[in-house]
Write a structure and sequence with these properties.
The complex is a heterodimer of chains A (133) and B (69).
Chain A: H1 7-23, E1 27-33, E2 39-42, H2 47-70, E3 78-82, E4 86-92, E5 98-104, H3 109-130
Antiparallel strand pairs in A: 1-2, 1-5, 3-4, 4-5
Chain B: H1 2-30, E1 34-38, E2 44-48, H2 52-67
Antiparallel strand pairs in B: 1-2
Classes of the chains: A alpha+beta (133), B alpha+beta (69).
Chain lengths: 133, 69
């Protein structure tokens, strides 16, 4: 699931993401993207799917950063996109990366974002210890 | 002359009807999706999908929701 440098960091990151998914049942899939736009953790096992998800997530972040700059801001700390069929939720990490999750259309989005913000500190800690950001 | 005027009125009504239907359909399509950004100072910015930025964000997000992360 994770393809970061150290096996310890990879395992830790997988554990944090798995804990988040267990805590927040409305989350359908979850990923961690580093500040360098590397997909560090994903719900996908297939390399092709991971690459595709990472590329789309990276493109979305670039768009979000551009929209923030146009509004005179640095970058968004949180992004919520409602697409009708579901939601895409992003919470910014310390090193510029993001913790991202998708949910169904009837998810309790506020609660999911709350859980994601709580998990952010743990993801930051794991990445800082592993030196991935 | 009267006949020509009547035809013009009919043509105008048809064109108006087509324009109204097109606008309605476009409006309905653009209503599906929105993005909300929150910044570190607590301020927010909402982007509806009837704006260029919002539409791009929603389109990419929709693909991500479809394939999962």
């Amino acid at each position: 699931m994770t393809e970061t440098g150290g096996a310890g960091t990879a395992g830790e990151l997988d554990r944090v993401v798995a804990d988040l998914r267990a805590l927040s049942e409305d989350i359908e899939s979850c990923a961690v993207l580093s500040g360098d736009r590397d997909l560090l953790s994903s719900s996908h096992d297939s390399a092709v799917d991971r690459e595709r998800a990472g590329a789309l997530l990276s493109a979305l972040l670039d768009l979000s950063d551009r929209a923030a700059r146009e509004g005179g801001k640095d970058q968004a700390t949180q992004l919520r996109v409602d697409v009708g069929e579901g939601h895409l939720l992003l919470v910014r990490l310390d090193g510029g990366g993001v913790l991202a999750a998708t949910t169904g259309s009837d998810a309790r989005v506020g609660l999911v974002l709350y859980d994601m913000r709580n998990a952010r500190g743990e993801v930051d800690r794991v990445l800082a210890e592993g030196g991935d950001q | 002359m009267k006949k020509l005027l009547r035809r013009l009125v009919i043509l105008g009504a048809i064109a108006g009807g087509i324009y109204a239907v097109r606008s309605y359909l476009r409006g309905e399509t653009s209503a599906t999706g929105s993005a909300q950004m929150v910044f570190d100072d607590g301020s927010t910015r909402s982007l509806a999908s009837n704006t260029a930025e919002g539409r791009e964000l929603v389109d990419i997000a929709r693909r991500i929701v479809e394939i999962g992360l």
